[in-house]
Amino acid sequence: MRAFLGIIVGIVVALAAASCVAVIGGWLFPTPLQRAIEMTPDGVRSAFGDMPLGARLTLVVAWLAGGFAAGAVAKAISRQRWAAWTVIILFGLYALATVLLLPMPGWLQALGIVAPLVGGAIGEGLVSAAPPATPDHTEPAIGD
């Protein structure tokens, strides 16, 4: 049950973390896509291709943050490496879908595949699989 909960919460937190970073990047580096009121799928692809470098780098940071959150949260809840890596790989597939659907330069495509895995490995590695130690709550005897 903990593994299932870790996977579900890990996915939600990973997407939320990546979205937060992407929103901040959108504020810092507005794109043609954000200036348009109505876009067709071709218009979205065209606007994405015209993104400034800062916005593209923010996208890499979003993938890294999402992977980190995926690994850390899933492992913290489930205490299982396999559950953490399940979420990391699912988030990596999400990033891969973005890479395949939108026009990106080769370096950004490569980072779209690597960043979620690196972030996930770091996040998963920082969280212990062991349950937290419970403190000893015994009271000392009156005569001690």
What does this structure look like?
Keywords: Membrane, Transmembrane, Transmembrane helix. The chain crosses the membrane at residues 53-73, 82-101, 107-127. There is one protein chain. With 144 residues, the protein is mostly helical. It has one domain (2-35, 51-126). 75% of the residues lie in helices and 0% in strands. It has helices at residues 2-28, 32-35, 41-49, 53-78, 81-101, 106-126. It is elongated, with a radius of gyration of 20 Å. The relative contact order is 0.17. The mean pLDDT is 87.
In short:
It is built from 6 helices and no strands. The protein has helices spanning 2-28, 32-35, 41-49, 53-78, 81-101, 106-126.
SSE arrangement:
Elements: H1 2-28, H2 32-35, H3 41-49, H4 53-78, H5 81-101, H6 106-126
Helix pairs in contact: 1-4, 1-5, 4-5, 4-6, 5-6
Keywords: Membrane, Transmembrane, Transmembrane helix
Transmembrane segments: 53-73, 82-101, 107-127
Oligomer: single chain
Number of distinct helices: 6
Task: Kindly state the percentage of residues in helix.
Answer: over 70%
Q: Quote the beta fraction.
A: under 5%
The count of strands amounts to 0
- The SSE string, one letter per element, is HHHHHH
How large, in whole angstroms, is the Cα Rg? 20 Å
Mean pLDDT, to the nearest integer, reads 87
Which geometry do the CA atoms define? elongated
Sheet having the most strands: none
Report the structural category. Answer: mainly alpha
User: What's the domain count?
Assistant: 1
Which spans have pLDDT < 50 for at least 5 consecutive residues?
none
End-to-end Cα distance: 43 Å
